[in-house]
Design brief:
A seven-stranded parallel beta sheet has the order 3-2-1-4-5-7-12, sandwiched between helices. A two-stranded parallel ribbon has the order 6-15. The chain has a domain of 221 residues: Rossmann fold. Strand 2, helix 2 and strand 3 form a beta-alpha-beta unit. Helix 1 crosses helix 2. It is α/β, with parallel strands linked by helices. The protein contains twelve helices and 15 strands.
Length: 343
């Protein structure tokens, strides 16, 4: 059975993950319907898709729909077999009120699921985050899909929003009997950019290469390649064992900011003098976090080195991610290729 008569709805296609997702689905022969917030974003998505080496060929269509409004979600889901729900608000600065992030994330997920159920969609693959898994510290620092972040903890709004939204999605399909739901929980998503819009992760690599972040907190985190996250979504969309399950996406053992800098220095020796050379101590991080909200996350994790399992994705779906060093190097190369970072 070919994919040419199967339509996949993708939300959040203007993001780092979304552009790669649309390109991969087109490359696999699917018809793709994309929700955007305003018409100008259509050209942006098409440009990203072409940069990834795919062509729309009349199989890419757009519809305006907002996470914060019921309008058009019925049309978006009509005739669709699968949904990839990537869209979720991500604040680059802490919001005045956490609900500015939490409410649209939760209600947007519920709108997508309700529209999918009404339209008879077979399966929804929701992009949650490792933020919903491992931001409540455990004594053994080992995390798998059975773990949940406590949204009542002292954590940033974005982390809370991912936890609340995913919990709401699971509750919805349990209470309403469908649609089938699979959830992907990626760690920090790196990998080659398709445009000049930076995500938090790719912006970090830029900061390392342009010398604007000479000192870093002692913080360890998981890394995964954007192309492998797309592959995980594709496997979760059609895998017979995927429905009703979460899948952590991580490419290998957690690394620190300092170790990331060393990977970049080895890959691009001309930039070695710019990468971070000093780590803040845990006490310095805690002190700085009192006045610098962006360090709240590092302070909350207290320097733990998490052991993050991707065993379920490997075993159930046959997923095989790239190694972390390759992902970081490919991210850097794309920043140079696009002229975002210069020698």
């Amino acid at each position: 059975m070919t994919n040419e008569n199967t339509t996949v709805l993708v939300t959040g296609a203007t993001g780092h993950l979304g552009g790669h997702s649309v390109a991969r689905l087109l490359g696999e022969g699917y018809r793709v319907r994309v929700t955007i917030r305003h018409p100008d974003q259509e050209r942006e998505v098409v440009a990203r898709v072409r940069r990834a080496g795919a062509e729309p060929d009349g199989r890419l269509h757009f519809l305006i729909a907002e996470l914060t409004s019921d309008g058009n979600w019925d049309r978006a889901a009509a005739g669709v077999r699968y949904v990839w729900h990537h869209a979720s608000p991500f604040p680059f600065t802490p919001p005045r009120d956490d609900d500015e992030v939490i409410v649209p994330a939760r209600d947007g997920a519920l709108r997508v699921l309700a529209a999918a159920r009404a339209a008879g969609v077979e399966r929804v693959v929701m992009t949650s985050s490792y933020a919903a898994v491992g931001y409540t510290v455990k004594p053994d620092s080992r995390y798998d899909e059975s773990d949940w972040t406590d949204p009542a903890g002292d954590i940033p709004a974005y982390i809370r929003s991912k936890t609340v939204a995913e919990r709401a999605a699971w509750d919805y399909v349990h209470d309403h009997g469908g649609p089938e739901l699979a959830v992907v929980n990626p760690t920090g998503i790196f990998g080659p950019l398709l445009g000049d819009r930076l995500s938090a992760s790719t912006g970090l690599v830029k900061a390392f290469l342009d010398g604007s972040m000479p000192v870093v907190p002692r913080m360890y985190f998981g890394v995964v390649d954007v192309r492998d996250v797309v592959d995980l979504h594709l496997r979760a969309m059609t895998g017979p064992g995927a429905a009703g399950r979460r899948f952590i996406g991580v490419g290998g053992p957690a690394i620190s900011f300092f170790e990331m800098g060393q990977i970049l220095a080895r890959h691009l020796p001309a930039f070695a003098a710019r990468v971070p050379a000093t780590e803040l101590t845990d006490e310095q991080v805690r002190e700085a976090a009192r006045t610098e909200p962006t360090l709240r996350e590092a302070a909350a994790l207290r320097g733990q080195i998490p052991v993050i399992s991707n065993e379920r994705a490997r075993r159930v779906l046959g997923w095989r991610p790239r190694d972390v060093a390759t992902t970081i190097a490919d991210t850097a190369d794309s920043l140079l290729r696009l002229g975002i970072v210069r020698p």
